[in-house]
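Notes to self after the call with IL:
- keep both proteins in one doc
- input above output, always
- annotate only the second one for now

Protein 1:
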Amino acid sequence: MSYNKEEKLQKYAELLVKVGMNVQKDQRVFIRATVDAKDFIHLIVEEAYKAGSSDVKVSYGDDRLAQLNFQYRDQSAFEKVPQYLIDERMDYARDYAAQLALISSSPENLKDADPAKVAANMKAYGAGFKEYMKMMQSDQFSWTVAAYPSPAWAQLVFPELEEAEAFDKLLDAILESVRMNEADPVQAWVEHNDNLHAKADYLNQKAYVALHYTAPGTDLKVGLPKGHIWSGASSINKDGTSFMANMPTEEVFTVPHKDEVNGTVSSTLPLSYGGNIIDEFTLTFKDGVVVDFDAKVGKDILEGLLNSDENAKRLGEVALVPHDSPISNSKILYYNTLFDENASCHLALGSAYPFCIEGGKEMNDEELAAHGLNNSITHEDFMIGSAEMNISGITADGQEEAIFVNGNWAF
């Protein structure tokens, strides 16, 4: 059965509510979006109420207002998050509301802003929402990150097209990435979920002590903590309800040991961070810490990211994505981490997910650190995969076994 665009958007809204957040009867819902997506947000809100939600709150952002704020406000205005914003989001988090972040902003929205203001703003948000992020990263509540186009983002992705045509093309690509072109999208997600879990199960049985990455510009060894858990696709919240954190998703991921990363890694796709692009960058690690870095584009922005706090120079995630995957094969560069990370193996600077180690959801910060997990106010994925990427798992007796060969799964 094929659907027209309006029907696909309705089905997409339903998918985000029922498969993404998996909204339950009488559950509250908190949605963050930009005004560009308001018409689609209306569909999501209606679907959430149909699913039994008791309260759906939408917090809107506006890209042009953000530009004006950065242009005219002093840097001191970006050094602290207004308490009412923190209180509102924490009210929903403590009530275990389902949460949706719908991404639409142009990745270059703040390219003309003062990098010092951008760095201060990102640092302030990381610190202000630290408790919220800790609850989210330990899956206390259901959370989903998804996307909907804006004209500015679409023009960045498809600069050769007129605005309306670019918008439609990006929308089509997003809908295809979340399997809306399948006859039964929900069943397609069930099967996709099973496939990713099978990969994670295999790696969990292997219990490698480290990973070795080799590719042009990359020779990196990443230690894995004892009791690490590979995850993929659906997660489980504190009530035992499944949800999909990222839509789309193609990754299987775990936590690295924060002190056991050595070597150099090179990016293979641009990173959108703080309304800016960082591209063609390298990071060199020693005993878990970035000791040298360079970037052809956005080096000052990268420096701000690395200096977010004392642990932003350490890794918090390793993720495996085959080069032969739907988003990679689309040959579209989205300039958006939600999509580009699902076209490529990636790492993340900053905080680790507690659910990726045995017993981690019940551990405090000190216990997690003792097990090798990083704690930071930031968590930023960056893409390192390619058709030339080889990854081996190192066993407890020092043997190397192929996990990825020429960018794809070896098993």
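Protein 2 (the one to annotate):
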Amino acid sequence: MDKTFQNIELSFLKIEDYQELKEAMISAYSSMPDAYWKEHHIQSLLNKFPEGQIVVKVNGEIAGCALSIMVKSRGFKEHHTFRQITGNYTFNTHSPNGDLLYGIEVFILERFRGMRIGRRMYDYRKDLCERMNLKGIVFGGRIPNYHKHAEALTAKEYIEKVRLKEIHDPVLNFQLSNDFHPVAILKGYLEGDEASSEFAVLLRWDNIYYEAPSKSAAITKTVVRLGIVQWQMRPYSGLQELLLNAEYFIDALSGYKSDFALFPEFFNAPLMAEFNHLGEADAIRKLAEFTPDIVEEFSHLAVSYNINIIAGSMPEVVDDKLYN
């Protein structure tokens, strides 16, 4: 997989994205060629619950998608089919006053896997649950490798072996690693899903910050964790040493679950020491030559450590003009 990318963006799905989304769904579900949402389905979801419909784009191209509705936990039946939970694909089961987020779709195109795109979408769903004070997330998770073991193992036995890491299932392993736990086995869940023998696992993630509604009005609070780098201006042997030092801070801030890593302006200024023999104007232009490499490396680090990086102002030369 070519990882030379410039921009990864998580954004709300728009109806203008539909044609590209359709092509992406067909590519993602090549074994089920008709398993894509029609335009009126997507429009219905956007009308009912726009915050629940997201895409991740890499260089402006759709790489993954997650679709959701809200349901009420009271009266929610653990044993159901995909057709039932979506109201025969009308989404009339969506409740604006629901207290559970139900995931009806997640896919990532194969050429974009390994870039933590799935984790970004799941982190968004978890954050949405916390912001909306929902009890948690539920969905029917496919087990696409089950068909290889269906003759020897029951679905229950297969799931247990996956949990014990005796068998690898790419979908279920990913869900378990993201703090979801199995609740029930769903038989005949998704019509045409031969890879899973039409079985699915009802998975759930619980929002530990959920608070039961009280009679008094509550104020919704949103918290963003900002990591500010205290950068020491010292000599560096070259760009590689500077980037290694930057990665140390990014790693530390990611470990503290920071949403942003903020570097000071011109943190790369020590690299100008190499050009002390030049005048100020020529030296700053030489410094600008490092900017594209820094931006590319920070893009990789942002994905690797799942953190947004603000690199501060850096000089840049465009059409022979110097910009800050």
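Annotation: Residues 144 and 170 are 8 Å apart (CA to CA). DSSP finds nine helices and twelve strands in the chain.
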